[in-house]
Structures are given as structure tokens and as C-alpha cells.
Amino acid sequence: MVLVVNGGIGRAFDDLTLNKALCESEGANVCGVIVNKVEPAKLEQTEVYLRKALSRWMIPLIGVVPDKADLGQACVLDLERKMSFRLLCGSAHRLRHFSKVELVASDVSRFVDDLTVTSLDTESSGTLYVFPSSRLDLLLALYANIGDNLSRSVVLVVVDPSTKDKYSDEIKRLSSVLDNRDDALPVLLCESKNPLDVVRKVERFTAKLNVEDIERVSNVVSHYSQHIDFAVLMDAVLSSGSD
213 lies in a domain? Predict the structure, then answer.
């Protein structure tokens, strides 16, 4: 068995000690350890300390993987499948990722000014904007003022308190404007009475890998393959199997 623990030094070693004892009590042989999501600044320190600590148990350290925040970014499809949001339009962008979530409740002019500043940031990652359905003027302002940079990174969520059987007049009007165009920005509908609750819910959401999100899966494979010694892993597993 290979144990995987989250980053750190003291906490990681405490977790290893506890889980190693549990595995041994059940007759499982721990043949290696991988430390995941280590703060990049503490990568070398963590590796040196844990390699020395594990040597006392004759257990190899197979890898120490630095944390990389963008690997955990959710996409539109995740919100559809795992959080039951309904995609109103923009189906061509179901795999668009976002890293920031913002509740939009300002006046139109201020929101347009903020969009102008954001559009100039070419390094900015995707942003998910959450609108109450009563403020479709803000959503339409975004459509009218969006630049090329934002058009490639924006995800929109409209929060409406109505049920699936009876959508509000605002949502019906929005659907008629967007007309389910595949080239439109991705716009999702979430049924809730409180837009702030939706923001908090999305911020707490942890997106799991899915095979359709090829970009994210490829980035994860590339990142982890650089920090895991697969030769040591195979030796450890084969040696464990021969005991």
C-alpha cells in the first residue's frame, strides 16, 4: 500500500504515523509515501525532513508534489453535473474554467468600469460572475462592454428564486435574448433565494477530475509526473507483492 498525505511537515508526519499503525494493525504493508499539495516554498525542506524520518521505517519517499492552485479549478460542466445548475446558453464553453467568484450588485456604470480594468489584465484567470435575476441590466451591460480577453474567460450565473415549473419573467426574458446560441458566453441558472449563498456554495465546491475535461486532466498528469519517481514506485509495489 502507498500512503498519500497532504503537505506540511509536522502534520504530514503525524498523519503518516497514525495511518501506518492502522495499516499494520490490519496486516497491510506500507511500501511507499507520496506527500501531496506541499507549499512550493517549503518543498525542499519537506522532502529532506520526511525522507530522513521515513528512513527509520525503511519506507521510501516516492514523491513530494507542490501545490498548484489552478489544477483544482472547476469548469461549467462541473457546476451542471455536481451542483445542478442549468446551462441557458454557451454550450460550446462547457469546459471553461474559473478561479474567482464575484457577486455583482453594483450600479451599471461602476460594473462597466470594473470590467474595463479586468479586461486589461491579460494574466487574469477566469471569473464567475453571479447576478440576481432582478439585475439583468448588469448582465446585459457585460454583454455590451465585454472585450476579447473577457469573452474567453467569463462564466455567468443568474440566481433566480423560481422553480423549474415556473420561471420568473426575468429568466424568460433573458432566455429570449440569449436564444440558446452556442457562440454565446456560458450562462448558468441557479435556483436560490440568496445570491450570496450561491457564491459561498461555489467557493466551497471541490471539483473532481472527469475524463471530458482533457485540458485539466493533461495539466494534472504533467504536473504530478514531474514530482513522482515512478521507478521507485514500481520497485516498492513489486517488492511489497513478493513479501
Answer: no
CA 171 to chain centre: 28
For residue 165, the enclosing domain spans: 71-205
pLDDT, residue 196, reads 95
Q: Is residue 119 part of a domain?
A: yes
Three-state SS across 95-122?
Answer: CCEECEEEECCCCHHHHHHHHHHHHCCC
Question: CB count, 10 Å around CB of 14?
Answer: 12
What's the pTM?
0.79
Residues 129-157, mean pLDDT to the nearest whole number: 81
- Give DSSP secondary structure letters for 150-211: HHTTEEEEEEE-SBTTB--HHHHHHHHHHTT-TTSPPEEEEE-S-HHHHHHHHHH--PPP-T
The pLDDT of residue 147: 65
**Residues 44 and 97 reside in one and the same domain:** no
Residue 32's SS3 state is strand
Cα 228 to Cα 16, 162, 224, 232: the distances in Å are 18, 49, 6, 9
pLDDT band with cut points at 50, 70 and 90 for residue 222: very high
The pairing of strands 86-89 and 187-191 is: antiparallel
Type of residue numbered 69: A
Using CA atoms, how far residue 77 sits from 45, 89, 133, 220, in Å, is 38, 12, 21, 18
Cα–Cα dist 150/118, whole Å: 8
Contact 113, 142 (CB under 8 A): no
